[in-house]
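pinging the channel bc i need a second pair of eyes. not urgent but kinda urgent?? the chain im working w is below, pasted from the shared doc
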Amino acid sequence: ANLDILDTAGQAEFTAMRDQYMRAGEGFIICYSITDRRSFHEVREFKQLIYRVRRTDETPVVLVGNKSDLTQLRQVSKDEGSALAQEFGCPFFETSAAFRRIDDEPANLDILDTAGQAEFTAMRDQYMRAGEGFIICYSITDRRSFHEVREFKQLIYRVRRTDETPVVLVGNKSDLTQLRQVSKDEGSALAQEFGCPFFETSAAFRRIDDEPANLDILD
């Protein structure tokens, strides 16, 4: 299959080309920025445009909220994106492709949040084959998510067929102490079993292990 990406930056002179792509395409990714509510409001217009050009509601669509690493600038909640996708009857995920330097070497940090939707299983496995390291994240307020950590670790091994892949275990929402269901000792013990680093974080208060930190990539 061919994946063609047409980014016209909203320039009117490309309208005819856009309609031509819509007639020829077999599926569409509608993308908005979680930091720009206007772009979210335009999603419905693009969905209606696809219908107007193709005259059918049967065209496959995926809704994507981009820039999920910029949590401090978020204007569109994940629940809003999920609700709109349910209205459209299409899959939804938030994603981020952020550029960082690690040990003074350029690196791409890709964050793919599929909200557990089964239709993204193939994409998840593809990311695992291509990735050079993984952050396994659970919520300290959700014991079920903690139990799923071991499954994801085993999945990484199954896909990559090696135990040498770097992993970091992260317990998120450490600010919600009154709702805690997983102790810090439990997280630390599991990380020791995996032989990997462990942190508890709060994206809301931008802290790692109760210390101020740059958490612009943690949600």
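so Confidence is low (pLDDT under 50) at residues 210-219. and Residues 141 and 180 are 5 Å apart (CA to CA). — does that match what u expected or am i reading it wrong
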